[in-house]
Design goal:
This protein is mainly alpha-helical and about 400 residues long. The chain has 2 domains: about 120 residues, no CATH class; about 200 residues, no CATH class. Helix 3 packs across helix 4, helix 10 packs parallel to helix 12 and helix 10 crosses helix 15. It starts with 7 loop residues before the first helix and ends in a 13-residue tail after the last helix.
């Protein structure tokens, strides 16, 4: 067994979960399959969109690649890993296609299953090629020299962080606003009961994103609109600071080398700006891609970068402790965002957009990323058998 935990395994589970979410979206209207329509042999649809065919082909390529690499890193031979990967991906696709019989808005298709399996096979081919060229071994040696043995999940967090920014958060880099979503789930679970009115007093689900985070939460009477307006730029700047510093802390908790830390911190700034610009362009058009870069946001990016630079020479345990504090502050702060009807309208536009399944994936990544990172950093803080003050390589 390799001494380092492979990054491919966390990425495999993440890829499988994202595929399942996209295939079964929107996860509503579940019913028992109609006996006359259900069949173990997937039907061939009379009309299929070219875009859907391409998505079915490309969607399984990453899963096939990372799963094959994970099996290779676990000690399996190339042929065994290839066949097992294709078989597992084909089985997953077949199971998800059958599950679509229980969803009114989804249509199972044998073409989807065939393209999914072919996409996984292409991913396997890419993984085997990289393995034969020695790229996997090179990555392992490089990682063993520059990263901690438990870096697998941390690296997966760094890979997934920019994807969560593609769905617009309440404030730039302000991921983790899970409160309204949990309330919406409680509204669904308490449907047709007296308790539903407590979770949704005005009957409009969008008000969950345009009002207080929890039932009964109100602004103090002494807080005026002017005070809220004065606090808003500072809240924006602080949210951006913490939102940028969080992945920087994860990066410093996995990296041994000071040079690698510097590269990862610079990459975090670039990815934060790029992902938010892409998100804004998708929502408001390319001409408005950088309209979010106001003075408070620029101040937050600067403060986040400066605070990240202070972690360059700190121990990995210190970086993990700072990351825990930063994430707790970010989650608390993003749940204090005052009511914003424009943000609720933005969510409604995204929910009705063309790429609704992709938006749903990105949204859940953004909602859950801070909590997954918090769990991993806490594990690093309380890990036994690790040096508390490791030597930082130049």
């Amino acid at each position: 067994m390799p001494s380092h935990r492979s990054t491919a395994w966390p990425l495999t589970w993440a890829s499988a979960a994202l595929i399942a979410y996209a295939t079964l979206h929107p996860w509503t209207g579940w019913h028992w399959p109609v006996p006359g329509l259900f069949t173990w042999v997937l039907p061939k649809q009379s009309y299929e969109l070219p875009g859907d065919l391409m998505a079915n082909l490309v969607g399984y390529m990453p899963l096939g690649a990372v799963l094959c690499i994970a099996l290779l890193r676990s000690g399996r031979g190339a042929l065994s890993a290839s066949l097992l990967t294709v078989a597992l991906c084909a089985a997953l696709s077949y199971l998800l296609e059958l599950t679509q019989f229980a969803l009114p808005g989804r249509v199972p298709s044998i073409s989807d299953w065939a393209l999914n399996s072919l996409g996984a096979a292409w991913g396997v081919l890419a993984a085997i090629t990289a393995y034969a060229l020695g790229l996997v071994d090179w990555w392992h040696r490089w990682r063993e020299r520059l990263l901690i043995p438990q870096a697998g999940f941390g690296l997966a967090l760094l890979w997934l962080w920019p994807l969560g920014l593609l769905f617009p958060p309440p404030l730039p880099l302000g991921e983790g606003q899970l409160g309204p979503v949990l309330r919406l789930l409680l509204v669904d679970w308490t449907a047709d009961t007296p308790w539903q009115r407590w979770f949704l007093p005005d009957g409009d689900p969008l008000s969950l994103f345009a009002g207080p985070m929890w039932p009964g939460q109100t602004l103090p009477q002494e807080v005026s609109v002017g005070q809220l307006a004065a606090w808003w730029p500072w809240q924006n700047a602080l949210t951006v600071t913490l939102g940028l510093l969080a992945p920087m802390a994860v990066a410093c908790a996995v990296a041994r080398s000071r040079a690698l830390r510097l590269i990862l911190l610079a990459g975090a700034v670039v990815m934060a700006v790029a992902a938010t610009a892409v998100s804004t362009a998708m929502n408001y058009g390319p001409d408005h891609a950088f309209t979010w870069l106001g003075l408070p946001t620029l101040l937050g990016l600067l403060l986040g970068a400066l605070c990240g630079a202070l972690l360059l020479d700190r121990t990995r345990t210190t970086a993990a402790v700072v990351g825990v504090a930063v994430l707790l502050g970010l989650v608390w702060l993003i749940h204090q965002v005052p009511p914003d009807p424009y943000y609720a309208q933005t969510l409604m536009l995204w929910e009705q957009g063309r790429f609704i399944r992709f938006h749903g994936l990105s949204r859940w990544l953004g909602l859950l990323w801070p909590y997954a990172a918090l769990v991993w950093l806490l594990a690093r803080v309380f890990a036994r058998g690790e040096a508390r003050t490791p030597k930082i390589a130049a």
